């Protein structure tokens, strides 16, 4: 019994059908607990006031925006190497989720930046990189939509994903070089001396778990949809031939 | 019940509002499309077996 | 390989090949900038390196679809794919031809257009050099985008969407080098990084483009 068994679309659908209710339930539970805890039961920060509560949305969304692209990269590699259709479809299914997460991170960041930095937007390296990441998501999704042949679309988009990852990384460092930042450093790294305090950290962790679960549940659901849509196209094409 | 958000109430509430609306839209669109495609596929498959 | 390069160059220079259109576009963009931001010399001088880089980049982008589209339509791309020359080589040669017909003229024209934007004296050389180093990367990256969208209806707009994010690092380092040169600062670091991007793109991207073309020709 290996992971590759689930590369079979029927097995994949059967498995995900079984785990989806629990998964989405857990996602909703984590999100509700984390956000309610964060919103109602955490103290204000002495410098940021109540705007610190935005962290419970901003940080998980930003994390998932990057992780979604990483997941697409891995799925694209699997498609290129082992040619499992489910993998290519999962990458396709993840893209809109990742793009939405990017928008959430950018929007909450802008709303937070307005009172804190005195501006909605600054050409700070992190902000700029996220904007570029969003453009990559847009291009990736547009390419999927534009190509009619399913296998060709999977091939081309996965190559775009690989090349895009390299260039996204390059842009990240180019942008760092180009402008110094306003954005604070990582607040969750394990080796940093100065992390956010525990009162903020615990609900944040719950929220991150919620976003991860939500992402996985959405990708499962959307991959199922893509599999069904492709099966339907195949049946219709066969009928037209007959 | 409502915590005192101080002078940043609008900021915090609009951030939560925007995010929740976006997440709801994403989930809603995913569910809607899933349901539609599932129904369409079922229709096509039953039509094929009926013949 | 040389024969292919000559063929592409001749096709591009011949009437209807679109040679010179990129140059004209570059000129027009440069002329329009003062109308948009005002004719003050100081303001123009401070944005000139960036504007010239952006104009060269857009002019390059406009001519990208020529790289593969015509050969794809008349079937000669299929012939090239079955030729003894590996497809990676074909892509590299075609990108090179694109650079000769679009990149080089832009590089040569940029200092002249710099006069129009009252580029400061020391900036001319660095603008010229940074464009000389950076435009090959633009051609090679563009060839990848053109390969992705070859054979698609309405491929042009999609290609811009795909290629422009890929141009970000090149633009940042190139424009930064030109700007620092114009302001008399040290330019080695951005120039080195720009050279690194060009060399890396030149070495690796033809493989990706060839893989993409094989899929499109399947």
TrEMBL record, chain A:
The chain crosses the membrane at residues 20-42, 54-81, 93-115, 127-147, 159-179, 199-221. GO terms for cellular component: plasma membrane. GO terms for molecular function: heme binding; heme transmembrane transporter activity. InterPro entries: Cyt_c_assembly, Cyt_c_biogenesis_CcmC, Cyt_c_biogenesis_CcsA/CcmC. GO terms for biological process: cytochrome complex assembly. It is found in: Cell inner membrane; Membrane. It holds the Pfam family Cytochrom_C_asm. Residues 4-183 form the Cytochrome c assembly protein domain. It comes from the Bacteria. Keywords: Cell inner membrane, Cell membrane, Cytochrome c-type biogenesis, Membrane, Transmembrane, Transmembrane helix, Transport. It is a multi-pass membrane protein. Belongs to the CcmC/CycZ/HelC family. Required for the export of heme to the periplasm for the biogenesis of c-type cytochromes. This is Heme exporter protein C. It comes from Roseivivax sediminis. The gene is ccmC.
TrEMBL record, chain B:
The keyword Cell membrane applies. GO terms for cellular component: plasma membrane. It is found in: Cell inner membrane. It comes from the Bacteria. Signal peptide: none annotated. Coiled coil: none annotated. Keywords: Cell inner membrane, Cell membrane, Cytochrome c-type biogenesis, Membrane, Transmembrane, Transmembrane helix, Transport. Its main location: membrane. The chain crosses the membrane at residues 12-32. The keyword Transmembrane applies. GO terms for biological process: cytochrome complex assembly; heme transport. It is a single-pass membrane protein. Belongs to the CcmD/CycX/HelD family. Required for the export of heme to the periplasm for the biogenesis of c-type cytochromes. This is Heme exporter protein D. The lineage of its organism: Bacteria, Pseudomonadati, Pseudomonadota, Alphaproteobacteria, Rhodobacterales.
From TrEMBL, chain C:
It is found in: Cell inner membrane. GO terms for cellular component: plasma membrane. It comes from Roseivivax sediminis. Keywords: Cell inner membrane, Cell membrane, Cytochrome c-type biogenesis, Membrane, Transmembrane, Transmembrane helix, Transport. It holds the Pfam family CcmB. One of its GO terms (molecular function) is heme transmembrane transporter activity. InterPro entries: Cyt_c_biogenesis_CcmB, Cyt_c_CcmB_bac. Belongs to the CcmB/CycW/HelB family. The keyword Cell inner membrane applies. It is a multi-pass membrane protein. The chain crosses the membrane at residues 12-37, 43-64, 96-119, 125-150, 157-178, 190-213. This is Heme exporter protein B. Required for the export of heme to the periplasm for the biogenesis of c-type cytochromes. One of its GO terms (biological process) is cytochrome c biosynthetic process. The lineage of its organism: Bacteria, Pseudomonadati, Pseudomonadota, Alphaproteobacteria, Rhodobacterales.
